[in-house]
Design goal:
- It contains 18 helices and no strands.
- It is mainly α.
- Helix content is 75%, strand content 0%.
- It is elongated, with a radius of gyration of 52 Å.
- The longest helix has 93 residues.
- Keywords: Coiled coil, Exocytosis, Protein transport, Transport.
- Pfam families: Exo70_C, Exo70_N.
- Belongs to the EXO70 family.
- It comes from Coilia grayii.
Length: 522
């Protein structure tokens, strides 16, 4: 059993703890009540805030929407004003650009093209939006005026700065001095670089916006005239030159010549007037003999002055052919920078026509003169054809390359001239050989001292001409003359029944002539 005192103490202890717990519970309840009151107050505040916020939102949203609409309207107004300014500017384009258009593009091409671009945009605007507007006609007229000014500037630049190429530069460019070991390339500059760039810009604009090809006609007309004048200037240079040699050298090349015994042989045949003149005199001898029946040697007259002129004319024509090829190549290089690619060949064809026709006409005149001389039995004129014909054949590959892409009629002009010269030369030599065969004095002019027969000597002269200017085997002078000389020389002048044995030297010479011919062309 538990003592009574212990039970009492235990009871009191329990009662005290209970009292404490009750006090704690009362404190908690009190705090809960306060917390509920605070919660109710906060909820009331939040509800009031929410209510007021709702009211504020309901008031702000319409204002926001209205402000947004106002901003949109403001943007639309700004855009409208900008468009109006842009449109109004089209109505002022004609007035704003009038001064620059009237003054022209000279010296301010970029600024001028910018004005033309403004006018073009105005034209496009009125065409799309107001085709019946009188302003459309005004800006169209301004645009056409600007285009005409550009075309005039194109023509003016070409006219002012296009000059004939000096003969000295042409002679350097065609490389007349082929004895030089190293040939320096000569560049023909037809236009200053700044002017060329302006012309290229104008050409590009006219092609893209001008929709007009008239400037191409202007280009080929001006450049064609300069090409023709360059060649004519070269001819005049030859006429005025007092040089005695057949090949004329420009001073620029002469300073570089090397007078050494080990020079290279020139590719182009050196023109030797003395050899040609001697052969011409021989031809004149038989020509006159065939006409009047007298011995040709007694009828020869000194024609040195006329022959000197002829030498220069032949040399001039030969160099003009080479000059034409070089100048045409240079013109095509210039044209390719200015003219659109699909119009280049046609424009080039038109550009070279005048100069080419003049050269071909001159060649036809040479052939015609030779034919007329042949009809008069004057066969000396045919020798003028040999150096020209040989040079034409040498030049033909470069000629064909340069004229590639041109019309067939243009490319066939040189072959036609070559054929004409070949036909005329062959006919002249055939008739000349016949005139020797029919010489009535052939049996009375045999050398009594046993020296080389005159015909054999003449054949050697013609062989020298043929060696220099042999254009084709069918035109070889010795082809006709060597056999003729041998047959005549073998005849005995004293006994018609017995043929005279040819002189040893004559046989050697004739065999040498024929062997050279066979070795070279068989």
């Amino acid at each position: 059993m538990i003592p009574t005192e212990d039970a009492s103490a235990r009871k009191r202890e329990i009662e005290e703890k209970l009292k404490q717990e009750q006090e704690t519970l009362a404190f908690i309840r009190e705090n809960l009540e306060k917390s509920d009151q605070l919660t109710k107050g906060m909820v009331s505040i939040l509800s009031s805030f929410e209510s007021r916020l709702m009211q504020l939102e309901n008031s702000i949203i319409p204002v926001h929407k209205q402000t947004e609409n106002l901003q949109r309207l403001q943007e639309n107004v700004d855009k409208t004003l900008s468009c109006m300014d842009h449109v109004i500017s089209y109505y002022h384009v004609a007035k704003d650009t009038d001064k620059i258009i009237r003054e022209g593009p000279t010296g301010r091409l970029d600024e001028y093209l910018a004005c033309i671009a403004k006018i073009q945009k105005a034209v496009e605007y009125f065409q799309d939006n107001n085709p019946d507007s009188p302003e459309l006609n005004l800006v169209k007229a301004r645009f056409e005026k600007g285009k005409e000014s550009l075309e005039a500037e194109f023509r003016g630049l070409l006219t002012r700065y296009s000059k004939p190429v000096p003969p000295i530069l042409i002679l350097d460019a065609i490389g007349v001095d082929e004895e030089l070991e190293v040939q320096e390339e000569v560049t023909l500059e037809h236009l200053p670089e700044a002017v060329l760039q302006d012309i290229i810009i104008i050409s590009g604009w006219l092609v893209e916006y001008g929709r007009n090809q008239d400037f191409m006609n202007v280009y080929f007309q001006i450049r064609s005239n300069q090409l023709d004048r360059s060649i004519k200037g070269l001819k005049e240079h030859f006429r005025k030159s007092s040089a005695s040699s057949g090949i004329l050298y420009s001073p620029a090349v002469q300073t570089k010549r090397k007078d050494t015994p080990t020079k290279k042989a020139p590719k182009r045949p050196v023109y030797i007037p003395g050899t040609i003149r001697k052969a011409q005199n021989l031809l004149k001898q038989y020509s006159q003999h065939g006409l009047d029946g007298k011995k040709g040697g007694a009828n020869l007259t000194p024609l040195e002055g006329k022959d000197d002129v002829l030498d220069i004319e032949i040399d001039s024509y030969i160099h003009c052919i080479s000059a034409f090829v070089k100048l045409a190549q240079s013109e095509y290089a210039l044209l390719s920078e200015i003219i659109p690619e699909h119009h280049q060949k046609k424009t080039f064809d038109s550009l070279i026509q005048e100069a080419l026709d003049n050269l071909m006409l001159e060649g036809d005149n040479i052939v015609s003169a030779a034919r007329k001389a042949i009809l008069r039995h004057d066969y000396s004129a045919v020798l003028t054809i040999f150096p020209i014909l040989r040079h034409l054949k040498q030049t033909k590959p470069d000629f064909d390359t340069t004229l590639q892409g041109t019309a067939a009629s243009t490319k066939n002009k040189l072959p036609t001239l070559i054929t004409s010269m070949e036909t005329t030369g062959a006919k002249a030599l055939e008739e000349f050989a016949d005139s020797i065969k029919n010489d009535p004095d052939k049996e009375y002019n045999m050398p009594k001292d046993g020296t080389v027969h005159e015909l054999t000597s003449n054949v050697s002269v013609f062989k020298r001409v043929e060696h220099l200017y042999h254009p084709t085997p069918s035109l070889s002078p010795t082809h006709f003359l060597s056999v003729t000389a041998l047959s005549y020389h073998n005849k005995d002048t004293t006994s018609p029944k017995k043929e005279k044995e040819p002189h040893f030297n004559d046989k050697i010479l004739i065999m040498s002539v024929n062997n050279q011919y066979n070795v070279r062309f068989c």
